[in-house]
Write a structure and sequence with these properties.
Layout (H helix, E strand, L loop, with lengths): L1 H7 L3 H42 L4 H26 L4 H18 L1 H16 L7 E4 L2 E8 L3 E5 L5 E5 H6 L2 E3 L5 E10 L5 H14 L10 E7 L4 E10 L3 H15 L21
Antiparallel strand pairs: 1-2, 1-5, 2-3, 3-4, 6-8, 7-8
């Protein structure tokens, strides 16, 4: 014991006091971390509920609640370190230098954060919109600090980096109130074009989901190798798009033949020349 006291430069009683002090500081720091992280989680949830109650855009709600939780956790960590007796002035200087180094290493992550801010500022889409971006299609489920999450029609989850989303092409299918439905129907050479156009126009006029303004369009688009192709266009409300698209295809298939029209398939005429 005498040798230990000589090495440490303090008596056994003083050593015990130091160890007790360190243990108390560690216990306090641990308690601060546990309680602080719990408070951060609860506050993040409260912020989210308050924003939803105020009917703030859902994209902004998820983003702000994430930032609130992260900010509180950072303060909790700093407070816990200060409870251990670390000089905060020096610690902040070290933290700043470390933050710069980490920032350089994680420049992509920071660009994702900046991309998230740009998305929320310009609002090219919102929660619930059906979009195409980065070659992926789906319904926007969440806009987080670093990522945007899509849900596909077959219920797959796609996570996209905000920097790529903000700097890429975004096709928003549901942002506008109305959407144009395009069809291309082929009839055989020799079929009556006038009858075809009148029949298609009757299909359109009988479907109340197809808008009268803008007016529908029917025109001969192409004289193909095996068919005469007719372009048909009509405007509908966003929610009616797929229903109108599939119903028109089905009706054409079922009723063209009864009207004396045929839907041709690719074919090739081969002429054999007999040599004498």
């Amino acid at each position: 014991m005498d040798k230990i006291e000589e090495m440490l430069g303090m008596k056994a009683g003083e050593l015990t006091g130091v160890l007790v002090d360190v243990a108390i500081r560690l216990a306090i720091a641990f308690t601060v971390l546990v309680i602080g992280f719990w408070v951060a989680k609860k506050l993040s949830s409260i912020v989210s509920k308050l924003l939803e109650k105020k009917k703030v855009d859902k994209s902004l709600t998820g983003f702000l609640s994430s930032i609130a939780g992260m900010g509180i956790k950072m303060l909790v960590v700093v407070t816990a370190i200060s409870q251990m007796g670390v000089e905060m002035t020096s610690f902040i200087a070290i933290l700043g230098a470390a933050g710069f180094a980490v920032g350089m290493a994680f420049s992509g992550t920071l660009s994702n954060f900046a991309g998230g801010v740009m998305i929320l500022f310009f609002k090219p889409f919102k929660i619930g919109d059906y979009v195409n971006m980065q070659g992926e299609e789906g319904v926007v489920k969440e806009v987080l600090i670093f990522n945007t999450i899509l849900t596909t029609v077959d219920n797959k989850i796609i996570i996209l980096a905000n920097s790529a989303v903000a700097n890429g092409t975004i096709i928003n299918y549901t942002k506008a109130e109305n959407r144009r439905v395009d069809w291309s129907f082929g009839i055989a050479y020799g079929d009556d074009l006038k009858v075809t156009k009148e029949l298609l126009l009757s299909f359109i006029s009988e479907d109340s989901r197809i808008l009268k303004d803008p007016a529908p369009f029917i025109g001969l688009a192409e004289l193909g190798d095996s068919s005469v192709n007719i372009t048909t266009r009509g405007w509908v409300n966003q929610e009616d798009y797929w229903g109108v698209f599939y119903d028109m295809n089905e009706r054409v298939y079922n009723e063209f033949e009864a009207a004396g029209l045929s839907i041709p398939f690719p074919q090739m005429d081969v002429h054999v020349k007999k040599q004498t």
